[in-house]
Design a protein that fits this description.
The chain has 248 residues and is α+β, with helices and mostly antiparallel strands. The protein has 4 helices and 15 strands. Strand 5 (94-96) and strand 6 form a beta hairpin. 44% of the residues are buried.
């Protein structure tokens, strides 16, 4: 049980991040720029005693990744003004007492989403919820990978094959990775370990499984055919007997 201090620190970081998300969500509205949202997120993280974890990634200078529409992940905050019906992938992390947390959500800007978009978003959110139930000490990581691929495909959408979840701790991205498909026999995949945290990610699009660099910023990744994409993520801390959602 020598990981109790790590557990307390990561859950405290998650509590900070939960407060940040709660306060910033009402400000995710048409007309605000992604750069303004990033500044507000950093201000809130520091207000509650944390540090922007993403700023500790070499070469990255922002507190968030804000990816719009066909941009899948790693969108750099800029002067783009969010518009009605945009899909915003909001990816954010807090660093606290030496440990990282990682979280992602997708928002449809403006009024209620159309039934088509609502179904698209609910497919990813439900897949994440189901994947979380499989994260237990001793279970094979491949069970989560297999579920993600089958669940997203059953809903009629495409996973992004070369983007993955990951272990998270002293570094934002640690091994082992958590693919979104079963890339080897189940019993050859690593097991979830007690005392370790994992960022489970669901990254998918309407009809494209491939990505390309978007522009020349060196970070933003878009779908190859510019299909709309969505993204859901939470950090889980695993003990011998329980699995805790770090961000609630």
């Amino acid at each position: 049980m020598n990981y109790l201090s790590k557990q307390r620190s990561m859950l405290a970081a998650g509590a900070i991040l939960s407060k940040v998300i709660k306060e910033i969500e009402p400000q995710i509205v048409p007309g605000i720029t992604t750069l303004e949202l990033d500044a507000k997120a950093e201000q809130l993280i520091r207000k509650y005693g944390g540090e922007p974890g993403f700023k500790k990634v070499p070469g990255y200078s922002w507190a968030t990744c804000l990816s719009v529409n066909e941009i899948v992940v790693h969108g750099i905050p800029n002067r783009y003004k969010l518009a009605k019906n945009d899909l915003l992938k909001f990816d954010i992390g807090v660093f606290y007492e030496g440990y990282h947390t990682d979280y992602g959500n997708t928002y449809c800007l403006g009024n209620q989403p159309t039934p088509e978009i609502a179904h698209f978003l609910s497919a990813g959110k439900e897949t994440l919820n189901q994947a979380i139930k499989l994260v237990k000490a001793g279970q094979y990581i491949g069970q989560v990978s297999d579920l993600i691929e089958k669940s997203i495909h059953k809903a009629g959408y495409e996973i992004i094959y070369n983007l993955t979840g990951h272990c998270v701790g002293r570094e934002l991205h640690e091994d082992p990775l958590i693919p979104q498909f079963l890339e080897q026999p189940l019993k050859k995949t690593p097991r979830f370990e007690a005392g370790t945290a994992y960022a489970i990610e669901i990254i998918y699009s309407f009809n494209d499984s491939e990505i390309r660099e978007s522009g020349t910023d060196g970070w933003s990744l878009r779908t190859k055919n510019r299909s709309l994409s969505a993204f859901w993520e939470n950090t889980l801390f695993v003990t011998e007997t329980e699995t805790y959602k770090v961000i609630n």
